[in-house]
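Project standup — Tuesday

K.O.: blocked on the structure for the chain from last sprint. Re-posting the sequence here as requested.
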Amino acid sequence: MLALSIVSPHGRNIASGKKTLEIRSWRPASLPIRNLLIVENSIFLSIENPIDPNGKAVAIVDVEEIHEWQPSEVAAACSSAWEPNYWAWSLSNIRPITSGQAIAAKRKLYEVDFAYVETEQRSNND
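H.V.: unblocked you, prediction finished:
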Protein backbone atom coordinates (compact mmCIF):
# COMPACT_ATOMS: atom_id res chain seq x y z
CA MET A 1 0.00 0.00 0.00
CA LEU A 2 1.21 3.52 -0.77
CA ALA A 3 1.72 5.76 2.29
CA LEU A 4 2.32 9.44 3.07
CA SER A 5 3.54 10.69 6.44
CA ILE A 6 1.95 13.75 8.05
CA VAL A 7 3.29 15.53 11.14
CA SER A 8 1.02 15.49 14.20
CA PRO A 9 -1.71 16.69 14.75
CA HIS A 10 -2.55 16.88 11.05
CA GLY A 11 -2.92 13.16 10.46
CA ARG A 12 -5.73 13.14 13.01
CA ASN A 13 -7.12 16.34 11.44
CA ILE A 14 -7.33 14.45 8.15
CA ALA A 15 -8.93 11.40 9.81
CA SER A 16 -11.59 13.60 11.43
CA GLY A 17 -12.39 15.38 8.15
CA LYS A 18 -11.20 18.76 9.47
CA LYS A 19 -8.22 18.91 7.07
CA THR A 20 -9.26 18.32 3.46
CA LEU A 21 -6.14 19.66 1.74
CA GLU A 22 -2.58 18.46 2.22
CA ILE A 23 -0.01 21.07 1.21
CA ARG A 24 3.26 19.93 -0.33
CA SER A 25 6.12 21.52 -2.28
CA TRP A 26 6.02 18.63 -4.76
CA ARG A 27 3.52 16.67 -6.84
CA PRO A 28 3.30 12.91 -7.38
CA ALA A 29 4.17 11.49 -10.80
CA SER A 30 0.57 10.53 -11.57
CA LEU A 31 -3.02 10.78 -10.38
CA PRO A 32 -5.35 9.56 -9.06
CA ILE A 33 -3.90 8.03 -5.93
CA ARG A 34 -6.48 5.79 -4.33
CA ASN A 35 -6.25 4.11 -0.92
CA LEU A 36 -3.35 6.27 0.25
CA LEU A 37 -2.42 5.42 3.84
CA ILE A 38 -1.91 8.47 6.05
CA VAL A 39 0.77 7.87 8.68
CA GLU A 40 0.97 10.41 11.49
CA ASN A 41 4.38 11.02 13.04
CA SER A 42 5.75 13.47 15.58
CA ILE A 43 8.85 14.88 13.88
CA PHE A 44 9.47 16.77 10.65
CA LEU A 45 11.28 14.43 8.27
CA SER A 46 14.25 15.67 6.24
CA ILE A 47 17.17 14.35 4.23
CA GLU A 48 19.17 14.24 7.46
CA ASN A 49 16.30 12.63 9.39
CA PRO A 50 14.36 10.57 6.80
CA ILE A 51 12.53 8.06 9.05
CA ASP A 52 10.44 8.21 12.22
CA PRO A 53 9.97 4.63 13.49
CA ASN A 54 7.12 5.80 15.76
CA GLY A 55 4.50 6.65 13.13
CA LYS A 56 0.97 5.30 13.26
CA ALA A 57 -1.74 4.64 10.68
CA VAL A 58 -4.61 7.14 11.08
CA ALA A 59 -6.56 7.22 7.80
CA ILE A 60 -6.90 6.08 4.22
CA VAL A 61 -7.74 8.68 1.59
CA ASP A 62 -7.97 9.23 -2.13
CA VAL A 63 -6.20 12.03 -3.98
CA GLU A 64 -8.06 12.75 -7.19
CA GLU A 65 -6.77 16.25 -7.90
CA ILE A 66 -3.84 18.55 -7.13
CA HIS A 67 -3.75 22.28 -7.82
CA GLU A 68 -1.77 25.38 -6.90
CA TRP A 69 -2.52 26.28 -3.29
CA GLN A 70 -4.68 29.40 -3.03
CA PRO A 71 -4.84 31.99 -0.19
CA SER A 72 -8.54 31.17 0.29
CA GLU A 73 -7.65 27.55 1.21
CA VAL A 74 -5.74 28.18 4.47
CA ALA A 75 -8.57 26.83 6.68
CA ALA A 76 -9.06 23.65 4.58
CA ALA A 77 -5.34 22.97 4.98
CA CYS A 78 -5.43 23.63 8.77
CA SER A 79 -2.61 26.07 8.18
CA SER A 80 -1.79 29.30 9.96
CA ALA A 81 -0.69 31.15 6.81
CA TRP A 82 -0.59 30.84 3.04
CA GLU A 83 2.66 30.67 1.08
CA PRO A 84 3.06 30.73 -2.70
CA ASN A 85 4.55 27.95 -4.83
CA TYR A 86 2.94 25.03 -3.00
CA TRP A 87 0.53 22.34 -4.18
CA ALA A 88 -2.82 21.52 -2.58
CA TRP A 89 -3.65 17.83 -2.63
CA SER A 90 -7.46 17.44 -2.46
CA LEU A 91 -8.26 14.62 -0.05
CA SER A 92 -11.50 12.67 -0.52
CA ASN A 93 -13.09 9.39 0.52
CA ILE A 94 -11.53 9.78 3.97
CA ARG A 95 -11.62 6.57 6.03
CA PRO A 96 -10.37 6.91 9.62
CA ILE A 97 -8.33 4.07 11.11
CA THR A 98 -8.91 3.59 14.82
CA SER A 99 -6.46 0.75 15.47
CA GLY A 100 -3.44 3.09 15.54
CA GLN A 101 -1.21 0.41 14.03
CA ALA A 102 2.49 1.31 14.18
CA ILE A 103 3.97 2.16 10.77
CA ALA A 104 7.37 3.82 10.24
CA ALA A 105 7.02 7.28 8.72
CA LYS A 106 9.20 8.11 5.71
CA ARG A 107 9.63 11.00 3.30
CA LYS A 108 7.61 11.42 0.06
CA LEU A 109 5.33 8.56 -1.05
CA TYR A 110 6.47 5.12 0.09
CA GLU A 111 5.28 1.50 0.12
CA VAL A 112 4.20 -0.30 3.29
CA ASP A 113 2.69 -3.66 4.16
CA PHE A 114 -0.65 -2.79 5.70
CA ALA A 115 -3.96 -4.61 5.83
CA TYR A 116 -7.00 -2.63 6.90
CA VAL A 117 -10.63 -3.25 7.62
CA GLU A 118 -12.96 -0.81 5.88
CA THR A 119 -14.16 1.75 8.43
CA GLU A 120 -16.75 4.48 8.46
CA GLN A 121 -16.58 6.41 5.21
CA ARG A 122 -16.32 10.19 5.45
CA SER A 123 -16.57 12.68 2.61
CA ASN A 124 -15.41 16.27 2.33
CA ASN A 125 -19.00 17.36 3.03
CA ASP A 126 -19.25 15.75 6.49
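K.O.: great, moving the ticket to review. The longest strand covers residues 56-68. The helical segments are 10-15.
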